[in-house]
Each structure stands twice: as C-alpha cells, then as structure tokens.
Design a protein that fits this description.
The protein is α/β, with parallel strands linked by helices. Helix content is 37%, strand content 19%.
C-alpha cells in the first residue's frame, strides 16, 4: 500500500530531543528520516525575581512548546499557584503543551498560529497598563512585544532557554546533497534554516536550494524564498502531523499552497 512517502529520504532538522515524533511519523508513512539537528536547545534558568514577576503579571504569554517545557522546569516541574494571571499561547501546539501540564489557557489564536495571530485576538486588544510577561528563548522575535507595547501594555520577558547551533559532522550530509540522495527537507524555524546553511559548504548550499523544502509557517517560507530555495511548501500548522501531511500531498501532486 502506498502510504505517501515510500522510500523518500527526508532530512529532519529538529533538535535531538524533539525529532523522534516527526521521524516516527515519516517512517510510518513509508519514508526514511535522516536526522541532522540544526538547533540545540539548552536551559536558561531565570532568577527568582523573574519568576515572581511572571506569577504576578496580568498575562503570561508562551511563544513555543520549548518555552512551556523550560518554564515548567523553572517552576519546579509543576503548575504554580496563579492569582489573577491569565495564560496565552501563540499556537495550538504551545496550548497543547500547556494543557498537558494542566496549565490553563485563556487565549490562543483561532487560525494563524504566530505572534501576529495572537495580537489579532480580541483578548489582546485592550491591554493598556496591563503587565504582560512573554515566556520565550533568549533573543526571540520582538513582534509580539512591539504590538503589545504599542497598545499601552507593560511588557517584559522571561527567557527560559537558549538556541545554539550544534557541533555536527556534516560530511555525510554534504555527500548526500551532492549525490542528490535527499528528497525533501523539513524546517520548523528560520533559525534552523539559517543554521543548516551555515553548517554546509558553498557547493552543497547551492545544490540544497533545489531540494523540496517543507516549512512550518509562511514566515519561514518567505525566508527560504529570500535565500533562493526553489521548491517550497508551507504546512498549514506547525505540528509534526501536518508537516507529514504536507510532505504527502507534495509527492501525491496535491499540494495547492504557494511555492517557488
């Protein structure tokens, strides 16, 4: 039975601790996952003052599942006692991570899972003079903070993890690219994409731009177009299941989204 990705070799660039589910789904669809993490996620433990400010805020806003996971660690592995604090998530995957730990979620975008989508939600319109703490990694996007600040909110960050480019042996990957052995690449962040290119040599960078690229959002697709990738498919949602569905439709000739 054709499960959609039969014998297709798919490069998976997720961090080591987060790649297994996507690799399993690719394998179940008949594909062959090729693990090459282009991001390493490490803790950035906040101080007691930062944690106290978060618990006393009006809005505690989580920007990713990583933000949830490392915040849970910072709070001792369990949900703290909230007073008047409400919790928001930028997308469904982040909200699911919060629900898995029994955290309440009072606001999540209905469709567009991004900073822009969250800013469009009714609950984020009247935030003047409210304390909003954004839980994220060190050096994340400022779009959300800028939007809330423009509406009069008092915004601060709780940065609970760091993203780094991992050390890796790239020779086998470069060889696979030059031999045209890879059928597709999955990318779930612009930083992962930039790191991938930084981990290759000049010749393989030019070759890799001709490989099918499946990305987790339109924003990543735009970055890929700027770099010069020629065949880009954007997933409707940033979850592993939807990434695999996008890969399937790509190879079944059913993908109808924008691509180059």
């Amino acid at each position: 039975m054709n499960t959609g990705l039969t014998a297709k070799q798919i490069l998976v660039t997720r961090p080591v601790d987060q790649a297994e589910n996507l690799c399993d789904l690719i394998a179940k669809a008949g594909g062959q996952p090729w693990r090459f993490p282009t991001l390493a996620i490490t803790p950035n433990p906040p101080d007691a003052t930062g944690l106290a400010n978060a618990l006393n805020s009006n809005w505690l806003i989580f920007t990713s599942s990583n933000a949830v996971d490392f915040a849970i660690r910072a709070f001792g592995g369990k949900m703290p006692q909230f007073g008047h604090t409400q919790v928001a998530a930028v997308g469904s995957a982040t909200a699911k991570s919060l629900h898995d730990f029994k955290w309440p979620v009072h606001c999540v975008p209905a469709t567009e899972f991004s900073s822009e989508g969250l800013l469009a939600e009714p609950a984020m319109q009247s935030v003047a003079d409210l304390d909003c703490v954004i839980v994220r990694g060190v050096g994340g996007r400022d779009k959300l903070a800028q939007g809330l600040t423009a509406r009069g909110a008092k915004v601060s960050y709780l940065e609970v993890y760091r993203r780094q480019r991992p050390e890796a042996d790239n020779l086998s990957l470069i060889d696979a690219i030059m031999r045209q052995q890879l059928d597709a690449i999955s990318i779930t962040s612009t930083e992962a994409l930039d790191n991938l290119l930084a981990m290759l040599d000049t010749d393989s960078i030019e070759r890799i731009k001709n490989i099918n690229l499946v990305v987790a959002s339109p924003r990543i697709a735009e970055r890929a177009r700027e770099i010069g990738f020629k065949h880009i498919a954007a997933s409707n949602k940033p979850c592993d299941e939807q990434i695999v569905e996008t890969l399937k439709t790509l190879y079944n000739g059913e993908y109808s989204g924008r691509s180059n």
